[in-house]
Specification:
Elements: E1 8-13, H1 27-33, H2 36-42, E2 47-52, H3 70-89, E3 93-98, H4 104-118, E4 121-127, H5 148-152, H6 158-161, E5 175-180, H7 185-194, E6 197-200, H8 201-207, H9 209-216, E7 224-231, H10 253-266, E8 269-275, H11 286-298
Parallel strand pairs: 1-2, 1-3, 3-8, 4-5, 4-7, 5-6, 7-8
Amino acid sequence: MNRRYPPVSLIGAPTDIGAGDRGALLGPDALRIAGLGAALAARGVDVADRGNLTGPRNPWQPPIDGYRHLPEVVAWNRAVMEAVGAELREGRLPILLGGDHCLGIGSITAVARHCRDTGKRLRVLWLDAHADFNTHDVTPSGNIHGMPVACLCGIGPDALTHLGGDAPALSPAQVRQVGIRSVDEGEKRLVKEHGLDVYDMRYIDEVGMKRTMEEALAGVDADTHLHVSFDVDFLDPSIAPGVGTTVPGGPNYREAQLVMEMIADSGRLGSLDIVELNPTLDTRNRTALLAVDLVESLFGKSTLMRD
């Protein structure tokens, strides 16, 4: 399928401020070393690499009032929100290179504001092993990379739920989660209470990835901005070991390719996060290379010409 994409901007956010393991701060440069920019350019995409954002270092402290590193998380997410928003206003497609998944708060807050300003409907595809719908009440770790969906839906500290001046940035009805296979006990109650649309691995096993993605993309049309938040731990750790929170039983290579190809077929991709890549846990940058391969499919690479 020969489709023209808007110009793309790569935005690095080298921090593991919200994670439980060090190393995700190296993710942006690992993706660059794996050839992300060149791969997209080879597909005819206009790519500009904006370099890396700067922010506070990781103090590696225990939780305070249930949250680890909250001031630093807010600072990083504000920087991400401003950078992503600036690219959207220029008509470009921002690709956030994380960094841990707490950065999705800033990225998606910017996208939600852009959609309100332009009259677009927003659909978020959350590709992840985890629901990330925790609060400080139900998680003992206080790691904010387990809370971004809750924060975006208005559940969490004011500094994050009101990051863009509006709360909530999202309603649960705008989110589709695919590949989920690890949800904490207290988190399960919150997911059910708020009606989050979750396609967990049992559902995928029962109906197949094709039907799952058809349902997740149902209603996406020309008036829809599709944001994909791709946590690399979405993938089975047998093919993607370079993450801090591996969970067995994830999508295999072909299933992941189908996910990306069906998103590409929708023609509605407007913004992308690639997060939680941890090169310190990887082997010869294998996981970054796989992520680049999948992003190529997200931008239209397929075995045959399809129409």
